[in-house]
Write a structure and sequence with these properties.
The complex is a heterodimer of chains A (578) and B (837). Chain A is built from 14 helices and 29 strands. Chain A is of the alpha+beta class and 578 residues long. Chain A has a 4-stranded antiparallel beta sheet with strand order 2-29-28-27, with no helix packed on it. In chain A, a hairpin with a 5-residue loop joins β17 and β18. In chain A, α6 runs antiparallel to α8 and α10 packs parallel to α12. Chain A starts with a helix and ends in a 7-residue tail after the last helix. With 837 residues, chain B is mainly beta. Helices cover 11% and strands 41% of the residues of chain B. Chain B contains 8 helices and 57 strands. In chain B, α3 runs parallel beside α7 and α4 packs antiparallel against α7. The chains are: A alpha+beta (578), B mainly beta (837). At the A-B interface, α1, α2, β1, α13 and α14 of A face β30, β34, β38, β42 and β46 of B. β1 of chain A pairs antiparallel with β38 of chain B.
């Protein structure tokens, strides 16, 4: 019994959606706007009975669409403009040194560069690779660095030296995964030959080989708490946890997609894996039970990182986005956009900088703003007084016998308000159409036009303009007519302008061109609206068919009270005037 | 009327004060206004109403000060009498019976014993033909005198009192009507007429609207419909008269007035700008803009220091001669119609309705005073006729008075209706409503109804609005869940949109516990659950649309009452979902008393309105009265009483806890009163003997009595000068002059302070003795002050009879003075003493 509108209403609880749908059903031309704008205002009403001063034009505050300002967005936006460094090839890995000053190793093409926290040039470069290097990682003391290579040799470097200290040979194919175990004497490697191996650093010998994966191993982590545990992820869709004391894996989890990256929580109770478009969280203490599966990227997720002391999880993807999740509810709280597909991501301790490596070989380093800097920017937003206030006599303290003549406080009015106060309607419109206003704050211009309309003088204000000012006016219309916020006001304005200047059409090529542009714009807009309506109609039918209809209990009872009116009233004494 | 003789319909408050121009007494202390059937005397310093001069039985149409005695005033009324009042004491001195309805009254000092009234002598022949008649008031000692000596001065005059004015020293009288200016010279006994052309070119209208005469010069100023002011000179002959034209107003000049010295001419009109023209240098103008509403009358005090302007929004503004607004006396603004319903503000217990354009007014019925105006639209009001502006059309309070919802609307020809729904939150700090959320275009068409969920235990506040676009929307206050920023207050958003067969919803009503919402869609009532927004049931009563919908309260909350277009009053039982009873009556308004089960139904019958008060559960009405007033009643409200009445009579019990106010067709605010209530009012009004210059506030009543005794002794001959304001007793002075930070807490002082004002027992005196020794050191400075006191605190008889024997009064006051002084000295041991005693 309920109409379709109210059915859909239950599924789209926001006012925004509701109104746009309700409009669509009415299907008139003005569908451009979701007409409900809920705006919170902080203005205080004038309630006193004293003589009111001039009330300035009310500028409608429109809600900002898009993301809401939360603590998170404020936090993650508080970075400086990125520093871009061009590397020789795609950047496959970024690893931060665990010890201060937290240098980071960037693996790109045949080199591993080490950058200082604020340097734009590498402080150190390792170039002794025969082929593409992979997975340059620091040891927990920051002294040693290990890297795999396309030529299947794993090299171990001293951070201060140049030549490889050790070479681990044994893999038959490219080694994409290298890591130190937590006792820092062993190295874990994973290779495209489907094996992962443990190596002893002092002897450069192979300790163990695990051949359980059935496809390339492209990621792996070692436990920071237990020197014997490590986890690898492979393109065979599985994650396997190995114990060095045993010869086989102790736990296997199925990610469902080729696994690109792995991350262990500091507590090591939870494991995060990325693969395909999915980021999945596993509970290791419950035997690898999947906890959450997130699908927020629309291309393969390539890299994971933890930030804010494990409070936030970051994932980077080929879709050029970095998403920040809250690790309590796994909701996306922020989003970064980058220029190219992201292959690697690194986050400095305390989120001091975000380093992102992309397929086009560009390394983007964003540093956090220092507190002074962030304060500075907010200070810039505050308007500084443009002129010095004449202070003479302002600091005079009246003596006891002085008779104080209070001067009324002068109300500050905007330029257009001053003109409106004097009923100079054309001048008010001129001031509102000043270049700065109409470009930066079209809502003010629209508010003035609306105010003129309310005063019934819009026609007077629009009339009698020369070519130049009519050009500006039409320019403004073309820019803002299809904006759903302004359309209701500007459509009437446009109609009025056409009415007024109908007789002079064809006399000025400038104005004519503008009118043609306007016509073009409107035609395009009408097409858009038609398309939108079609989509909405489709949605409506889909909703209507997907909801089981609920029968409204009515009928029997309500019919009886309609029909049984005669007997009901006779059984009761009539309410009559006496 | 026959059955319930003790319940009467009376005017109570909210009458017009801008009907005729206000009259200022010679000492500029009081302002006399014709207000309905009485004359109101306002104090110009406090803006409070000091007296109601009651006696006329019809509309008062004019007030003037008696030229030969400036303490008396004449008033005339449509009941055909002229009454003479002593307005300082509020006493009716004499009544002169003329016998014909009087439209205005004029008098001049040079015509003693004569008043000029405008009346229609030949009411039977041509009622629209009015005459200016000189009435010789007979000297006789009787209260009621019939004035027989009438002589016509001018015929065919305007009923507007502004169109007739006396010239310099009462030598001539000028009258305008239509396009004619007529001047009657008393010395020559001759009338001259001057005509203007209609002059319809360019749409100008030359019709006279008002006239004013220069007090020192032979000059007449006339205002015209097209906004022009003409200054006429040399008019004591037919031929050589001249006039000059002044033009500033863009529409009709509604009032003109010269200052007493004739140096300035004041004019006003619909622009609500007071224009001051310098006489003889008319290009020098001064303006006082934005006076709030169209100016209807302008008056200047006899000394020229104050201007008074009446406005169309029932307001009198007091303006200093330097064109600075000093005060405003605001009556209930009624305008053309009440678009919002009548409402009660749950906090201030004041009546709320739309007032000035774009405002909501809060009017205290108890004090008959406007509390404040809430600016809803917050836009500059353009004073121009024929302009469509935003109007407040709907408003609703929630049960606790924390939230106020308003709907403003602007209709434009050919364009869509502009709607704004605003939600206001009560701010404890500023004690007023602060805008919280603005929703522009909440619906696509006009909003037909709006109501808050009235249950108090409910956590969420909910508002439902119904609109002609076929939807009703539920709005809810957001929880602060998703906005983590601390400075964001919760705001409102849409929670649910409902519709029923694309019918137009008309009324909506929440049940007493807030669990059910009833919305009427033409002839169908739909009942929704507010928790799940499910349509629970539909009730219908074809074939006509539902007009009113109302849930029962308290024990009758299971009943839903509705009235339909085909004269049916139906009561549904929501437990059985069936019709409980129905009766046929043409109910124009159905109303539930919020604090009892009672419901009131106003029914139209044969051109007048009947009232029924009933309980939904009982078939017999509690009270019914036929012909409450002529015409239709569309707005009414139950107002809770401040103190309960204890009436035992069954028929008037429904008035015990609340009062029923209603607006008649002619926008008069009426109420029902019982005999008990009237007796009480009479008794209290006799008790109050009030000084004229001070406002009647509870504080004043407390202090005023004290001072009256003082001034009674020092009463000298009556002077017209302004007496200095009372200083109060020394104790009070002491209290008020001591800095607040050295005083103990108010709770300590209060009881003592109040005691000091009473004349009471001897106990404090003993205490005084006990503490006398401590006072020794202060003795000297006290002595000097006591001399001062002696003038004010001399022994006198207490005003109340039962205390007549007490002679301890002055000593006691002194004792209290000492106490206060000791407090000032910060002697903390004193507290212990006081607490022990």
């Amino acid at each position: 019994m309920i109409s379709a509108t109210s059915d859909t209403a239950r599924f789209l609880p926001s006012a925004w959606m509701l109104s746009s749908i309700s409009i669509s059903s009415s299907s008139n031309f003005h569908v451009t706007a979701p007409s409900v704008f809920v705006v919170q205002t902080k203005s205080i009403s004038v309630t006193s009975t004293e003589m009111a001063s001039f009330k300035p034009t009310k500028i409608q505050v429109y809600p900002k669409l898009g993301e809401k300002v939360t603590q998170d967005t404020l936090y993650w936006k508080n970075y400086k403009a990125p520093v871009q460094i061009k590397e020789f090839g795609a950047i496959t890995n970024i690893d931060f040194s665990p010890v201060a000053p937290h240098n980071f190793a960037v693996t790109a093409f045949t080199r591993v560069h080490i950058y200082g926290p604020f340097s734009q040039e590498p402080v150190k470069t390792f170039t002794r690779f025969k082929d593409t290097a992979y997975s340059g990682r620091f040891r927990s003391d920051g002294q040693l660095l290990v890297a795999g290579c396309e030529d299947s040799v794993v090299r171990l470097f001293d951070v201060s030296g140049k030549v490889a200290l050790r070479m681990f040979k044994g893999h038959t194919k490219a080694v994409h995964v290298t890591d130190f175990t937590s006792d820092s004497y062993q190295i874990l490697t994973g290779s495209d030959d489907y094996t992962c191996r443990l190596w002893d650093i002092p002897n450069a010998t192979e300790l163990n080989t695990y051949q359980e994966h059935t496809d390339y191993i492209r990621c792996g982590v070692t436990s920071k708490l237990n020197r014997d545990l490590f986890i690898t992820g492979s393109y065979d869709h599985t994650l396997k946890m190995f114990d060095a004391r045993l010869d086989k894996s102790v736990m296997t989890m199925d990610h469902g997609h080729p696994v690109e990256n792995l991350l262990l929580y500091p507590s090591e109770g939870l494991l995060v894996s990325a693969g395909g478009r999915y980021v999945k969280v596993w509970d290791l203490l419950k035997g690898g039970q999947p906890l959450v599966s997130m699908k927020n990227h629309h291309k393969t997720v390539t890299c994971l990182s933890l930030g804010s002391n494990g409070q936030r999880l970051l994932s980077a993807s080929l879709d050029r986005h970095v998403k920040v999740y809250n690790t309590t509810n796994y909701k996306v709280v922020h989003n970064f956009d980058y220029a190219a597909s992201i292959l690697s991501l690194g986050l400095a301790p305390d989120d001091e900088s975000i380093v992102v490596g992309m397929t086009n070989g560009i390394l983007s380093v964003k540093h956090r703003k220092s507190p002074e800097e962030s304060k500075e920017t907010s200070g810039q937003q505050r308007r500084k007084p443009s002129y010095r206030v004449f202070v003479k006599g302002k600091n005079y303290v009246p003596k006891q016998d002085d008779y104080l003549v209070s001067k009324p406080v002068k109300q500050h009015l905007a330029k257009y308000d001053k003109q409106l106060k004097r009923f100079n309607v054309s001048k008010a419109l001129d001031t509102a159409l000043e270049t700065w206003l109409r470009r930066r704050k079209p809502e003010i211009t629209v508010a003035v036009i609306k105010e003129l309309d309310r005063r019934g003088t819009l026609k007077n204000a629009l009339a009698g303009r020369d070519e130049q000012s009519l050009f500006h006016l039409l320019n403004f219309l073309i820019g803002n007519l299809v904006d759903p916020r302004f359309a209701p006001v500007l459509v009437t304005t446009a109609e009025m302008i056409l009415d007024i200047y109908r007789s002079v059409i064809g006399q000025s090529p400038v104005v004519d061109r503008q009118l043609l542009r306007l016509q073009d714009l409107l035609e395009r807009e009408i097409d858009y609206q038609k398309d939108l309506l079609e989509v909405l109609g489709m949605l409506d039918t889909m909703f209507a068919s997907s909801i089981p209809r609920k029968e409204v209990p009515c009928s029997g009872i309500s019919r009886s009270n309609g029909l049984g009116q005669g007997e009901a009233s006779t059984s009761r004494p009539q309410l009559q005037a006496t | 009327m026959v059955e319930h003789g003790d319940i009467r319909v009376v005017h109570r408050g909210g009458s017009k004060i801008n009907f005729r121009e206000p009259v200022i007494t010679n000492d500029s202390k009081f302002l006399l206004c014709a207000s309905g059937e009485c004359v109101k005397v306002f104090s110009t310093s406090t803006e409070e109403c000091v007296h109601d001069l009651r006696g006329h039985t019809d509309l008062v149409t004019g007030v003037i000060i008696k030229p030969s005695n400036h303490l008396q005033a004449y008033s005339c009324s449509a009941d055909g009498t002229v009454r003479l009042w002593d307005f300082t004491d509020g006493i009716l001195i004499k009544t002169y019976v003329i016998g014909h309805p009087i439209y205005s009254i004029h008098a001049s000092a040079s015509h003693e014993g004569v008043v000029f009234v405008v009346t229609s002598m030949h009411a039977d022949k041509r009622p629209d033909l009015l005459q200016l008649v000189a009435v010789h008031l007979p000297r006789s000692g009787d209260q009621m005198v019939e004035a027989r000596e009438l002589s016509a001065v001018l015929s065919d005059v305007s009923s507007n009192p502004l169109a007739i004015v006396f010239g310099r020293g009462g030598e001539y009288i000028a009258s305008t009507k239509g396009l004619k200016l007529e001047v009657y010279l008393f010395r020559k006994q001759k009338a001259y007429s001057f005509f203007l052309k209609e002059d319809n070119k360019k749409g100008r209208r030359n019709t006279f609207t008002c006239v004013a005469c220069h007090p020192k010069d032979d000059c007449i100023a006339t205002g015209h419909e097209d906004g022009k002011i003409r200054l006429w000179r040399n008019f004591n002959q037919k031929k050589e008269y001249t006039y000059s034209t002044l033009h500033w107003h863009h529409s009709a000049v509604s009032s003109l007035c010269f200052t007493p010295e004739g140096t300035n001419l004041l004019s006003g009109g619909i622009e609500s700008v007071l224009v001051q023209w310098r006489y003889n240098q008319e290009d020098q103008r001064e303006f006082l803009p934005r006076l709030g509403a169209a100016i209807t009358h302008i008056t200047v005090s006899p000394d020229g220091s104050l201007f008074f302007t009446s406005h169309s929004d029932n307001k009198i503004t007091i303006i200093q001669s330097c064109l600075k607004v000093s005060a405003a006396i605001q009556g209930l603004v009624k305008g053309e119609s009440v678009t919002t319903d009548l409402m009660m503000d749950p906090r201030s217990k004041s009546l709320v309705l739309n007032g000035k354009p774009g405002h909501l007014q809060f009017y205290s019925l108890q004090r008959d005073k406007l509390l404040y105006n809430l600016d809803v639209v917050q836009q500059e009001y353009i004073h121009e006729s024929g302009l469509q502006q935003f109007e407040v059309v709907k408003a609703a309070f929630d049960a606790s008075g924390n939230w106020l919802a308003t709907v403003e609307e602007r209709k434009q020809k050919g364009a869509e209706v502009e709607l704004n729904l605003k939600l206001w939150e009560f701010d404890e700090q500023t004690q007023s409503f602060v805008l919280n959320t603005t929703i522009s275009a909440p619906h696509e068409a006009q909003i037909t109804g709006m109501c808050f969920c009235h249950s108090t235990d409910n956590q969420t506040t909910m508002l439902v609005s119904t609109s002609k676009d076929g939807h009703f929307k539920a709005w809810q206050l957001d929880a602060q869940a998703h906005t983590e920023a601390a400075d964001e207050r919760p705001s409102w958003s849409c929670d649910f949109v409902g519709a029923y067969h694309s019918l137009v919803p008309e009324c909506c009503c929440f049940s007493a516990d807030g669990s059910l919402l009833a919305v009427s869609f033409q002839e169908v009532v739909t009942v929704w659950s507010t928790a799940s927004w499910e349509l629970l049931t539909t009730l219908s009563q074809p074939p006509k649309a539902i007009r009113n919908l109302c849930f029962g309260r308290l024990s009758c909350s299971k009943y839903l009452l509705g009235t339909t277009g085909n004269n049916l009053l139906c009561c549904w039982n929501l437990l059985t979902c069936s019709l409980e009873w129905s009766t046929s009556m043409d109910v124009s308004l159905l109303l539930a008393d919020p604090i009892s089960e009672n419901m009131a139904a106003f029914c139209r019958q044969a051109g007048s309105t009947d009232l029924f008060v009933f309980k939904p559960s009982e078939p017999r009405p509690l009270f019914s009265q036929k012909a409450v007033c002529p015409g239709k009643v569309t707005r009414a409200i139950f107002a809770p009483r401040e103190e309960m009445l204890e009436s035992c009579e069954e028929s008037s019990q429904w008035l015990n806890r609340s009062q029923l106010y209603f607006l008649t067709q002619h926008m008069d605010l009426m109420t029902f009163t019982t005999k008990v209530e009237e007796d009480r009012l009479m008794a209290s009004s006799k008790q109050l003997v009030i000084d004229d210059s001070v406002a009647m506030t509870p504080f004043y009543l407390l202090l005023g009595k004290h001072r009256q005794q003082d001034s009674g002794d020092a009463q000298s001959g009556i002077s017209t000068e302004r007496t200095p304001l009372p200083q109060g007793s020394v104790a009070i002075k002491e209290l008020l002059q001591t800095p607040a930070h050295v005083l103990p807490s108010t709770s300590f002082l209060c009881s003592m302070f109040v005691q000091s004002l009473l004349i009471s027992v001897t106990e404090p005196r003993e205490e005084n003795k006990a503490t006398e020794e401590e006072m020794e050191s202060e003795k000297e400075e006290e002595d000097s002050e006591e001399e001062m006191e002696s003038g004010t605190t001399r022994p006198e008889q207490a005003p109340l009879g039962r205390h007549a024997a007490e002679s301890a009064a002055p000593a006691l006051t002194k004792a209290q003075v000492r106490e206060l002084r000791r407090v000032k000295k910060l002697d903390r041991s004193w507290f212990a003493g006081l607490l022990d005693s």
